[in-house]
């Protein structure tokens, strides 16, 4: 039997190992993701300044999605892999393979209160309700979790909540709002995540790419 690849079959092989990647659409996280992916050898041209959300290149399809949605796109297999913060991986509760810590900006999950702390913490506001419930359980704190969508510090300032669980990066937001970091809950960074079925179907391509990302993360 002739096993020599035909032009058609090699085209199919190239096509089947083309990667679809979900990356965060926010400017700072997007810039970090693109830089990291390019350094690891993905051929991604400059993205035009537009409202487009999907970019097709010969080597890769890029999907620009909201941070919390990256683990979802990867878990359902619409994307083979993605770049996203550990905070959103935890919050998603999705079972993606998470092979590489890409580093990037270091930040952390913290329990935050007013400088004049309330005697009892009964309500905790956050944009990470799942992760917060887990943290509170581990701390043995029986507080209600109030899910909000952003600007969480305001919940502590206004008394909507007695404390908040949020990410702290530079600490500037806390400082400028007179809040204190009562307890660091977990150190965080940006990760590369992979859909478990894609890891089998596109094994060679993904394993090579993971290897390149690991080498870059070390250097
Ligand atoms: C994040 C986070 C804090 C702030 C921390 O908010 O929720 O508010 O950054 O950063 P810092 O320690 O460097 O000040 P983001 O900018 O994502 O806005 P959001 O609150 O609207 O989600």
Description:
With 219 residues, the protein is an alpha/beta fold. The protein folds into 2 domains: 7-105 and 189-218, D-Maltodextrin-Binding Protein, domain 2; 107-187, D-Maltodextrin-Binding Protein, domain 2 (3-Layer(aba) Sandwich). 37% of the residues lie in helices and 31% in strands. It contains 9 helices and 9 strands. Residues 1-14 have low confidence and may be disordered. The chain binds 1-O-pyrophosphono-5-O-phosphono-alpha-D-ribofuranose. The site of 1-O-pyrophosphono-5-O-phosphono-alpha-D-ribofuranose has 12 residues, from strand 8 and helix 7.
Sheet with most strands: strand arrangement: 2-3-1-4-9-5-8-6-7
Overall shape: it is elongated
The CATH topology annotation of the largest domain reads as D-Maltodextrin-Binding Protein, domain 2
Q: Total strand count, please?
A: 9
Name the ligand types.
1-O-pyrophosphono-5-O-phosphono-alpha-D-ribofuranose
Please name the CATH architecture of the largest domain.
3-Layer(aba) Sandwich
Poorly predicted sequence stretches spanning 5 or more consecutive residues: 1-14
Rg, Cα atoms, Å: 21 Å
């Amino acid at each position: 039997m002739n096993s020599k690849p035909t032009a058609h079959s090699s085209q199919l092989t190239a096509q089947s190992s083309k990667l679809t990647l979900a990356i965060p659409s926010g400017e700072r996280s997007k810039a970090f993701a693109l830089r990291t992916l390019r350094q690891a050898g993905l051929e991604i041209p400059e993205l035009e300044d537009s409202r487009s959300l999907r970019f097709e290149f010969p080597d890769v399809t890029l999907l620009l999605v909201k941070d919390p949605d990256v683990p979802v796109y990867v878990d359902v297999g619409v994307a083979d892999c993605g770049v996203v913060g550990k905070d959103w991986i935890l919050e998603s509760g999705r079972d993606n393979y998470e092979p590489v810590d890409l580093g990037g900006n270091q930040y952390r999950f913290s329990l935050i209160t007013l400088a004049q702390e309330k005697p009892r913490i009964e309500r905790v506001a956050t944009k990470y309700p799942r992760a917060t419930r887990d943290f509170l359980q581990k701390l043995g704190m029986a507080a209600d979790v109030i899910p909000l969508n952003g600007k969480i510090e305001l919940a502590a300032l206004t008394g909507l909540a007695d404390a908040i669980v949020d990410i702290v990066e530079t600490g500037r937001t806390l400082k400028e709002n007179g809040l204190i970091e009562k307890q660091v809950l977990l150190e965080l960074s940006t990760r590369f995540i992979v859909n478990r079925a894609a890891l089998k179907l596109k094994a060679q391509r993904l394993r090579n790419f993971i290897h390149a990302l690991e080498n870059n993360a070390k250097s």
